[in-house]
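job 3f2a | input accepted
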Amino acid sequence: MSALLATFGVDWHSLLAEVLNFVVLVAVLSYFLYKPVLKMVRDRQALVAKGVEDAASAAAHLKEAEGQALTRVRSAESEAEELLKAARTGANAEKSKILAEAQARAAQVAKDADARAAEAMAKAQKESEKDIARIAILAAEKVLQKHS
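job 3f2a | predicted structure (148 res):
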């Protein structure tokens, strides 16, 4: 074997020294470079995994918050409908009350107008009776004057 190595120009001692240097270099690089880089990669993987978990958690919280918001909106809509219904009921009651008051006032005004009309008619009738009586007296005087 040494003849074969000598044929290719390989020195056994140099090859052994280079193999030893390579093993030392691999051991040093493994200790000072590979392990820290591997640790950094694992830390980065853990950070990414935590980010994914946090994103999933945030999505779940968002979905829950949207559900709560939807519940609140529906509750507010039902309260608004109830308030609107109560307001309409109150407005209808107020409308009925105002209408009743207006009808009562209209009836009172009509009653007052009827009373004034009756009073005016009675006054006109009295004046007519006075005028008729005066005309009758004047006519009687003229008839008496003609006959006398």
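job 3f2a | The chain has one domain: 2-147.
job 3f2a | closed
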